[in-house]
Design a protein that fits this description.
Helix content is about 70%, strand content about 0%. By secondary structure, the chain is mainly alpha-helical.
Length: about 375
């Protein structure tokens, strides 16, 4: 059991404090969603102003990815509409709010990148900060493109499977199965972008393939079960009018955990590849690699491209030349760096305090969002006439 890949990935996720990381990523993601979706409304509204059917399909794709956020015919109680604005509104919105929306939407991308790199065990920053922000922008654009592709593919798949059902005689289940397969392919592509491009770690496809496939499959299953999962998580009557907000936070936490678990799965494959490059065997299952520099032992990889890509990771450690991964925080290395050493009990207290801070901050944020929504509702003409 302890030598299975699933156990090793779960252990690595736990060793990296994955639940706490996922909570932080979900917190940043929640407050970045509104500017990101507002930006999506501007961009998609401009590009698809003459194609309302495709714009509606994009809204459904967004609702699948973020249940409860977008107003659709199936979900009229969503928090934000997605409609094509008028041309004048588009020009003003694009000129005045574009930069602020982009910067606001990058918060979640940056926190997710830091979480993936932490699970990978990569020390230090991601390099040039300007290039890192450009990479974040590229990832945001690719995520938006994936929504557009998902919406377009759902329309194409629906039309194609309808034709096949009519002429071949297959049942309506073909539409569902084909849609799930297309969703799996798109979700796997998104995981590749997150694990390879967003993390900034130069890894070949062979070393992130398993993690991306696991993450894509998990994301597809989560979207299929989204309504049931969120209903179970928000059935407490105390949530009241905050049901949609709590549901979004719960969903973002689930997605963040899935991405970090996929990163843990891929990271174990990376450790195995690094050990192979060094001519050594991996250590205890689930433990990150502790090699600081490559040994002079012969390298046994048969793939020159893979050798070239993975070799820099063998020397990627902390600035003092420490080991790669969470093991770099050992007592001896922390003492050399002038940092206090925390025992297991002290570390647990720190983690508990950090969790309490995150929880308290999220509670304050929820209260602020609730007050804002009530204030906006009070300003609506319908509400004022009712009063």
């Amino acid at each position: 059991m302890q030598r299975t890949r699933a156990y090793r990935a779960w252990k690595r996720f736990g060793d990296a404090k994955g639940n706490l990381l996922a909570a932080g990523v979900a917190y940043f993601g929640f407050f970045s969603l509104f500017p990101a979706v507002a930006l999506a409304a501007v961009v998609f509204g401009f590009l698809l102003a003459g194609n309302p059917d495709l714009l509606a399909a994009v809204g459904r794709s967004l609702d699948d990815a973020l249940p409860g956020l977008i107003q659709t015919p199936e979900n009229p109680d969503g928090l934000m509409p997605l409609a094509a604005p008028e041309t004048a509104t588009l020009s003003w919105a694009g000129a005045v709010a574009f930069v602020s929306l982009v910067l606001g939407g990058l918060g979640w991308i940056g926190s997710l990148r830091d979480g993936i790199r932490t699970v990978f065990g990569v020390q230090g920053n991601e390099g040039n900060p300007v290039l890192a922000k450009l990479r974040d922008l590229l990832v945001m654009g690719l995520l938006g493109a994936s929504l557009l592709v998902s919406a377009a593919s759902s329309s194409v798949v629906g039309a194609a499977t309808g034709w096949v059902s009519k002429h071949v005689g297959l049942g309506p289940g073909l539409v569902t199965v084909t849609g799930v397969l297309v969703s799996f392919v798109i979700d796997t592509g998104v995981m590749v972008v997150l694990l390879r491009l967003l993390s900034g770690v130069p890894l070949p496809w062979k070393d992130i393939r398993s993690g991306a496939l696991i993450g894509g499959l998990g994301m597809t299953v989560l979207k299929l079960l989204a309504a049931t999962l969120i209903a179970q998580a928000t059935r407490n009557p105390l949530f009241g009018s905050f049901v949609v907000v709590v549901g979004l936070l719960f969903w973002l936490n689930l997605v963040s955990r899935l991405v970090l678990l996929s990163a843990a799965w891929a990271a174990n494959d990376i450790d195995t590849a690094l050990a192979d490059l060094q001519g050594t065997l991996p250590g205890d299952p689930g433990q990150p690699s502790t090699a600081a520099t490559p040994d002079p032992a012969p390298i046994r990889s048969d793939d020159p491209q893979r050798r070239a890509r993975l070799a820099p990771l063998l020397t990627q450690g902390d600035p003092a030349g420490g080991a790669r991964g969470p093991e770099a925080n050992s007592a001896q290395q922390r003492a050399k760096a002038g940092l206090p050493h925390l025992g297991r009990r002290d570390a647990d207290r720190v983690n508990l305090a950090a969790g309490a801070v995150v929880g308290a901050t999220a509670a304050v944020g929820l209260a602020a969002v609730g007050r804002t929504l009530r204030s906006v509702g009070a300003l609506l003409p319908g509400r004022r006439r009712a009063r």
